[in-house]
Amino acid sequence: EKGNHAHFMQKEIFEQPIVVAQTLQSYLRPLEEQVALPDMAFDLAGFDRISIVACGTSSYVAMIGKYWIEQFARVPVEVDVASEFRYRDPVLTENQLALFISQSGETADTLAALKHCKRAGVKTAGIINVPTSSMAREVDLLLSTHAGPEIGVASTKAFTCQLAVMAAFATNLARAKGKLSPEEEREIVRHLSEAPEAMNAALGHDEDIAGMAGTIAEARDVLYLGRGIDYPMALEGALKLKEISYIHAEGYASGEMKHGPIALIDDAVPLIVIAPSGPLFEKTVSNMQEAQARGAKVVLISDAEGIGRAGQGTIATIEMPKVHPLIAPLVYAIPVQLLAYHVAVAKGTDVDQPRNLAKSVTVE
Ligand code: M6R
Fold it and tell me: Which superkingdom does the taxonomy of this entry point to (predicted)?
């Protein structure tokens, strides 16, 4: 079933351009140059607040969704990990949509949070990969991802498919709220349609990334930095690395470095910096350079422009194609996943079934 691949995780990383294209097919109408969601029994324009609830990797899609929805639709979003949401007695209101994200559709905490919202009369939607799952049956609006079965415990293709659906959802909401012109929507549809090709280009760096994995595999701790939507990407990078390679890793918002984490920096702590060129680039680079001045070994993931401006003094760079911010996380996820994968292979861990973890967490 793994075909030519050594592990399910590797197969699932490489499947991403295809399954993201499949997922986008149900949310894009290229002829009308519009984004489309399935029919729903309520009007999205009626919601003034959105709560997004998920666990683990799915919760990073929630965080990226917050940036997109607030930026494009100007609707305030709160994000919670499901285990916190349930027990903090959240304020639930009628003008609120509760959006749940889950690959399995069976995660106990997320399912309980969903049931809690339904009991309170809150409208619910779910970005879910398993169409027959408990959550898929419970939500008022099912937004399916079409990633196919994900076997590796580390979530990869479900993550990028969830991002594709989140981008479509944010765009649709922005239109419903009157915040998006037809020209802007056309642009977004065009960029989203280009995502699978850009993801293929990112996969082309597999060998370079395998080549640098040995250095990272020797580290005891690894830090990931990003700003804006790349902050949740940094969290995802760190989670992926710790779960399959057992190396301690943390993701930080770059601006937070000087508030504590920079104390950890020395030449034994590699720093993975996720920074496409753009308005936030210089700020992230200045945080990166502060760390470099303290001996940090930096791997910079950026585009040609970013690498041209800040690649000097790094131990390695990984060059991504230049892409629209709405598809950047789909593309930048790939080097982040490949790095974790190759480090785990270098360490000889059980990539598909890491110790102490289950694919689907059905108990609290
Ligand atoms: O099936 P779900 O999306 O609800 O699962 C949530 C988390 O358990 C999951 O993303 C977990 O963090 C992965 N092992 C991460 O790779």
Answer: Bacteria
